[in-house]
Amino acid sequence: MKDKHVYAILWTSTILTATILIFILGFVVLKGSAALSIEFLTDIPREGGEAGGIFPAILGTIYLVVVALVVAVPLGVGGALYLVEFQKENIVTKIIRFGADTLNAVPSIIFGLFGFVFLVYYLKLGVCILSGGVTLAFMILPTLLRTSEEALRAVPGWDKEGSYALGATKLQTIKNIVLPQSLSGIITGIVLSIGRAAGETAPIIFTAAILNPVLPKSVFDPTMSLPSHLYTLVSESTPEKLVNAYGTALVLIILVLITTYSAMLLRKYFTRHVRR
């Protein structure tokens, strides 16, 4: 009887979670599909965003996420390699893990404040894509570090020992054995990081976002982003004029889903390649 009760509770939790997810996605799709069109995706905002399109916001979001990944992925994977392959368990590794877990729990607005004070004001980078991207990189770095570390630890020890027995160096073993076998888990961490970076609003408002619908020419220019544009629309529009806000939310969800699915396909490809 106890097993049946536990089974029923688990099924109920699963169905409830799926129902909530479907309800939220269905609501956004229902409300946002009316705004979707070629013009909406390729035009610039007009009348405070209540008319026109969201092309500058789409482009700005892509730029910010790319900058964040370029900064965070090497640091996160490199830090995980240091913890797993080059450093024995001691007080240093405990401090690094504790710091990463603590940073993972810090509210995003704190990262935005840090990015504004350190990057925008102290380093004089100004409000630009680089400031926003680096701030997002700091925010997703703990996730990348911890997921990459777990993926690297999942590599069987006998595979590495076999590589050493054949005369391979540590770097050769990492390159040919450790990284290929852990790539699936590392990509999973990158996918999670992309979703979080693309959907953040607070750090971008402080460091990168502007309301003017201009296309950035370099990473030193400010930009619009989908989350900040959505925040502006919801804050300043009346409920009757939120069609573009729902459309913006739907486009953001679609971008995250496309990125996630693409990463899943990439992960499957690399997994098959390693097994062969």
Question: What does this molecule look like?
Answer:
By secondary structure, this protein is mostly helical. The protein has one domain: MetI-like (MetI-like fold, Orthogonal Bundle). It has 11 helices and 2 strands. The protein has helices at about 1-30, 40, 55-85, 90-105, 110-120, 130-155, 155-165, 170-200, 200-205, 225-235, 245-275; strands at about 45, 50. A two-stranded antiparallel ribbon has the order 1-2. A hairpin with a 4-residue loop joins strand 1 (about 45) and strand 2. Helix 1 (about 1-30) packs across helix 11, helix 3 packs parallel to helix 6 and helix 7 (about 155-165) packs antiparallel against helix 8 (about 170-200). The radius of gyration is 22 Å and the shape is globular. The protein starts with a helix and ends with a helix. The mean pLDDT is about 85.
Low-confidence stretches: none
- N-to-C series of helices and strands: HHEEHHHHHHHHH
Tally of DSSP helical segments: 11
Q: What is Rg? A: 22 Å
**What is the helix fraction of residues, given as a range?**
over 70%
How far do the termini sit from each other? Answer: 46 Å
Mean pLDDT reading: 83
Domain count: the total is 1
Shape designation: globular
What is the level-2 CATH architecture name?
Answer: Orthogonal Bundle
Q: What is the structural class?
A: mainly alpha
Provide tags for this entry.
276 residues, mainly alpha, MetI-like fold, two-stranded antiparallel ribbon, 11 helices, 2 strands, globular
